[in-house]
Design brief:
single chain; alpha/beta; TIM Barrel; nine-stranded mixed beta sheet; two-stranded antiparallel ribbon; 8 helices; 11 strands; about 30% helix; globular; iron
């Protein structure tokens, strides 16, 4: 079993020296190995030549299970986020890791490419508090080409899991893989109706992946998708203005609409610098204090 932790997590645990990102409430862990899938955007796909200590832009360093269990405390982190690479025998490693972390009494979210509903049940029984089943690609044809598999099957599995475990299922969507605004909004609306949390990511080209030369989405487009997601979950989807398949503006925005630009996902998720470099503009803003006075907030209003 190979366990990695993000460098920000290790900073907060005091295992390595460095500046802890603002608002870091969740410990980010990675159960690592050689993935059996070939998602074209991923540093861990079996054909990728990327440096494997990275996932997206985040640097992950190995930590032993003993050191991890000794270091993690409820008064340091309010949640554990465990991302799982789909390597051979990952299921048994994940079950063993969940059982080891369960004793910490910290809520555990896992993000894993489950095969069926029985696998979902196993992880909840082993101690998971939430399970993320990623969609990533919002267009059916692009899903097959970029991620591999069947989008309809994934959506049906998410709906089945959400029915069995209401309020305990999450999903991920990546903006900028060739989908239209309407396609991604339609999936967000579908997830909202069944109480599935939606975490948004901006596509990030990473060296060594098949899509390393693909252009990331503009900040303006990403802000519009963030606003649309937030409005949908606030019950205000009528505020989204479309022209053909593109979002062109919004009406009747609440005063606190800037909250839409915060990192989305499970409770207490901040996930700092996953899509961007420190010092540049942030696609996902990881702390509320960073919202105030930022020059790009108004860019989303049309």
């Amino acid at each position: 079993m190979i366990i990695h932790a993000s460098v920000g997590t290790l900073y907060k645990l005091g295992i390595r020296k460095g500046n802890v990102p603002a608002g870091l409430k969740t410990a980010y862990l990675l159960l690592d190995g050689r993935c059996q899938y070939n998602c074209l955007y991923c540093t861990h796909s079996f054909e990728s030549s990327s440096r494997r200590e990275f996932l997206s832009r985040v640097l992950w360093l190995e930590i032993s299970l003993d050191d991890l269990v000794k270091s993690l405390k409820k008064d340091v982190f309010s949640r554990i986020c465990l991302q799982v690479v789909s390597y051979k025998n990952y299921k048994q490693d994940l079950l063993n890791l969940l059982k080891a972390l369960k004793s910490l009494e910290i809520p555990i979210s896992i993000s894993v490419r489950v095969c069926d509903i029985e696998e979902v049940k196993q992880y909840f029984e082993a101690g998971a508090e939430r399970i993320g089943i990623a969609i990533d690609v919002a267009n059916e044809d692009l899903y097959r080409k970029i991620r591999g598999g069947n989008l309809k099957k994934t959506l049906n599995l998410i709906e089945e899991a959400a029915q069995l475990y209401p309020g305990k299922i999450s999903t991920h969507l990546i903006v900028g893989l060739g989908e239209t605004d309407r396609e991604i909004v339609q999936i967000i609306e579908r997830m909202s109706k069944i109480n599935v949390a939606v975490a948004l990511f901006a596509f990030t080209p990473v060296k060594g992946s098949k899509l390393e030369n693909h252009t990331p989405p503009s900040l303006e487009r990403y802000r519009k998708i963030q606003l649309a997601r937030w409005l949908i979950f606030e019950g205000k989807s009528d505020s989204i203005i479309f022209e053909n398949d593109a979002i062109v503006g919004f009406k009747d925005l609440p005063e606190d609409y800037q909250k839409a630009f915060l990192t989305s996902g499970c409770p207490d998720c901040t996930r700092p610098y996953y899509n961007e470099k420190p010092g540049k503009y942030l696609y996902n803003i990881h702390a509320e204090e960073l919202l105030n006075g930022e020059r790009f907030i108004e860019e989303a209003r049309t």
